[in-house]
Amino acid sequence: MATRDEPGIMDFVLLDEITIERFMENLMIRFNAGFIYTYIGEVCISVNPYRTLNIYGQDYINQYKGREIFENPAHIFAIADSAHRSMKMHRQDSCIVISGESGSGKTEASKIIMKYIAAVTNLTGQQEVERVKNILIQSNIILETFGNAKTNRNDNSSRFGKYMDINFDFKGDPIGGRVINYLLEKSRVIQQQLGERNFHSFYQALGNTTHKEASNLGLNPDPQHYFYTRQGKSTITPADKSDFQATLSACKTLGFSATDIKTIWKIVAAILQLGNVTFSTNDDDSITVTNFHNNPVEQVSKLLEVDAKDLLTALSKRIIAANGELLQKAHTLSQAEVGRDALAKAIYDRLFTWIVSKVNEALIPYIENDKYKGGTVIGVLDIYGFEVFEQNSFEQFCINYCNEKLQQVFIDLVLRQEQEEYKKEGIAWQEVKYFNNQVICDLVEKPHQGVIAIMDEACLNVGKVNDEMLLEAMDSKLSNHKHYSSRQVKTLDKDLKHKTQFKILHYAGDVVYNIYGFLEKNKDTLFQDFKRLLYSSKNPIIRDMWPEGALDIKSTTKRPVTAGSAFKISMIALVKTLNSKMPYYVRCIKPNENKAPVGIDYKRVVHQVSYLGLLENVRVRRAGFAHRQPYNRYKMISGFTWPNYKCSDKEATRALIDENHFSNDVKYGVTKLFIRSPQTLFALEKMRAELIPAIVILLQKQWRGAICRAKFRKMKAAYFIIKFYRRHKIRTYLKSVLEAHRLTNNIYF
Ligand SMILES: Nc1ncnc2c1ncn2[C@@H]1O[C@H](COP(=O)(O)OP(=O)(O)OP(=O)(O)O)[C@@H](O)[C@H]1O
């Protein structure tokens, strides 16, 4: 079990000075001693240990259950318990926001939290609750198969953001849940960097071609055979084979039908086959589908249950309606290739969304049952952290915007909590200086003026605007913005490439984005012909995934929401969800690039500390009177106040503070003592810690005395009873003897 004998300082708020050097020193002392968790107030910092630690067992669960955060050594269980307790005791919805860069341990943290919550609920062992917990756990397996992939940073990297609600009934038992997914990295379907892989699902299908569930897919088991799994030079690992079984069994637990499961694997196989469709240019500039390698077009049409001729047409031509007439327009080679890849990405994206909706179908019915009205929720958000690569594109732009929003929620929350606490305790609020990143959120999301609006406007002018022109539009509208820069608007910014890059000064640091691909990725269009084709599928599951394919070709369709706007809408909804709950934070840090259990890569960690805004977090938390303790905590320190004192705890505390000359460093709240500097807190804590052993001995002595006295009283009572009983027995005996004597001697009284 954990002890309080901890290396370093368990809360960064207690650092004597807030500098990155002191922060890192404490982080390293603790990590090197095997302590991966440290707090900033109630925020838990977690450093990935890259080894199995024996700190998540039942003994630890018991130690943290029902305890206040600061009663035990820093641990993620304390955060989970706090969220669970506030949900149970105050009937308040809460959510745990987990962030950090890829490989920092977010998903592991979310599983540890789930495990803790599962362990502390349902002590009565109801079957129904066990079933719901099982569904929640199994749903993770499915989401990881279709949403995770091996990257160079993490062998099991989540390539989507995930928010999961767990719903509890009024007794605090889990009764269901709901998953919301954010921005799947669908570009991975068609392209991976060297050493990386496509989503796990593809290798699971390939590794199990003889398994009955995958035997009719017509797949070659070698990933090198398929363009979409070939680029990373990937192979099937043994895990993929057994993971396939786990996925199947999870799908069955969640109530996926045999047809559902078959369709999922058929879609996965169809995407692999689609990647092998190639094109060549004819003399007249038209294109032909070359269709090498076992006629992939035929295979795709079979798997998706669409007409092969229609598929061939959709891959090589577009049908457009002009003046009420339908015209066929042949693709150029690049249009055909872009169209094929867009189709592959869109099919997988729809499949993933459909899988999430099926998972939700398994989780939701209980929540909507009237019987469970009035329940509460704990949400867990496992979302991508700030991303900065050599080349940053539209995806990093969205992810960093997401982090900008989360940071805003976080700082707002910390300030709100602080103000409420000061108000409740009757202490005048002192303004805290902090960086308000609203200005950066506005730069991205402001209607008509933000980057997303400018991109959307450019997307309206189909074919007429390219990425370079988009950059020009951004330059002209944002040139005066303090957090925007490009070579054109700030000629001194020599590190930026002319007409190619722009820079955003995020709260966490500067990020240079390459404009190339922004327009196409924001438009995120799939030719209407493909939508109609998929809607014509004889497989009702596939048809239902593409309802917009039902639209009449001649009717003017509403322009679909762009990817940027859709993401903005989902972020605004997420912020609303978080603001309606009591948030708790886990900030994950990756110690090194080698996935090694020892060694902190100093520069890399400093980078993450700054991108997670941790020093800013300490600063806000440290402003004013950062440390608060209830009045009865120190009463034993002074001879005036312990063991006998006639005044209130508050007066007693005031007496001992005066006695120790700390009055200039504290303020007196209604129920708590507010302490400004860590030094005063340490001094008080030290005095308390020194006295505790003596008090324990005193209490033990008193307790033993009390036990002995109780025992003595019991014995005395027993003797008393025995004495009376004996007396009663003797009296009865004598009475009977006398009676016998009277009868034999005929004595009459
Ligand atoms: N608490 C932990 N104990 C032991 N190992 C851990 C822990 N946290 C993370 N790891 C190890 O680090 C690996 C990466 O962690 P995880 O997948 O949770 O990262 P992530 O932040 O979710 O990454 P991504 O954003 O790429 O999905 C895990 O597979 C596991 O091996």
TrEMBL record:
Annotated ranges, domain Myosin motor: 7-689
Record: residues binding ATP: G100, E101, S102, G103, S104, G105, K106, T107
GO cellular component assignments: cell cortex; microvillus; myosin complex; plasma membrane
Any Gene Ontology biological process: actin filament-based movement
Keyword Cell cycle: no
Keywords: Actin-binding, ATP-binding, Lipid-binding, Motor protein, Myosin, Nucleotide-binding
Localization annotation: Cell membrane
Membrane topology classification: Peripheral membrane protein
Source organism superkingdom: Eukaryota
GO terms of molecular function: actin filament binding; ATP binding; microfilament motor activity; phosphatidylinositol-4,5-bisphosphate binding
Region named Actin-binding: 571-593
PANTHER family: MYOSIN, UNCONVENTIONAL MYOSIN ID
Protein's UniProt name: Myosin motor domain-containing protein
Organism: Aphis glycines (Soybean aphid)
